[in-house]
Amino acid sequence: MHVLELFSLKDKVALVTGGAGILGKSLVEALAEAGGKVIMASRNIEVLEEEKRNFKAQGLDIDILVYDQGNHDSIVKLKEDIQNVYGRLDIFVNNAVARPMKTVDADIAVVEQSMRINAVGVIDIMREMSELMALNGGGSIINISSMMGMFGPDLSNYDGTDMGTPPPDYFFHKGGMINLTKYYAKVLAGKNIRVNTISPGGIFNNQPERFLENYTKKVPLRRFGTGQDFKGVTVLLASHAGAYINGENILIDGGLLA
After folding, report:
1. How many domains does the structure of the chain reveal?
2. Which helix (H) or strand (E) holds 113?
3. How many CB atoms lie under 10 A from the CB of residue 79?
4. CA–CA gap between residue 141 and residue 87 (Å, rounded)
5. What are 6's strand-pairing partners?
6. How far is CA 149 from CA 59, 62, 187, 247, in A?
7. Of all helices (H) and strands (E), which one includes residue 42?
8. CA 36, CA 42: separation in Å to the nearest integer?
């Protein structure tokens, strides 16, 4: 097979959750540019419709579906909608995340809300979407974790800012996602479903100037990541080019933690 054909996603149906976010939009774009039929899903229909219009202006035809990752019935409906409309699911980019905890000592009810979406919800949607994939002979699940799921916080990045200490829930569930990837890579192997993780380093999002300075001076490439930096590896893991990559966590941080 020609190398460019290895990366083709022609005739593949892909779901990207949290697809309207900073990183998610680039992942949607990448899969669509590679020829996939991409479904962008999140809770906010207005944001989804706006992004659909933006993609259409780029010549990309993206479909949208609404769901709530904190609600099991909503996840099941999402699976049923995909099955009824498209008849299959080949690629699932598990990117949705909620960050309700704003401080280290946030109320325990807020912690529970975070876990409902980011821990229980992650397992819930992986089970449902892998079941749908298995009906058509397999596919690829790409979990979006973070370097914060691999390492503790570098608190010196926050020196001279009023950002405070980052809350623990994100570190907890992103770390769990990496090991969950390894678990499902083994458990779903008999169903021809590959499961891998991408762990981004810092992504530019108009953070305070002092924070940007503190962080980028530690990065060998001297910059934050952008959504464009994650398009290639996403297509690799989604396509036949990555057919022998399974159970891996790929850290993309510009060399920060080399």
Report:
1. 1
2. helix 108-115
3. 19
4. 17
5. none
6. 36, 30, 22, 16
7. strand 37-42
8. 19
Handedness of CA 219, 222, 228, 232 (dihedral sign): negative
CATH of the domain at 14: 3.40.50.720
Cα(220)–Cα(256) distance, rounded to whole angstroms?
6
- Token look-up 């510009």 returns 254
Q: Is residue 193 part of a domain?
A: yes
Identify the CA nearest to 95 among candidates 133, 147, 143. Answer: 143
Q: How far apart are CA 148 and CA 135, in angstroms?
A: 34
Contact 256, 23 (CB under 8 A): no
Print the domain residue range for 159: 3-247
* Residue 188 located in a structural domain: yes
Write the pLDDT tens digit of every residue in 20-42.
Answer: 778 999 999 999 999 999 999 99
**CA dist., res. 114 & res. 71, Å (int):** 13
| Tens-place pLDDT, residues 136-184 | 999 999 999 999 999 999 999 999 999 989 999 999 999 999 999 999 9
List the one residue out of 107, 105, 170 whose CA is nearest residue 144. 170
| 113 and 100 Cβ atoms separated by less than 8 Å | yes
Contacts of 139 (CB under 8 A, 6+ apart): 89, 90, 91, 92, 133, 192, 193, 194
Q: How confident is residue 45, by pLDDT bands cut at 50, 70 and 90? A: very high
Q: Measured between alpha carbons, how far is residue 110 from residues 73, 113, 117, 125, 151 in Å? A: 22, 5, 11, 21, 23
Alpha-carbon span 160 to 162, nearest angstrom: 7
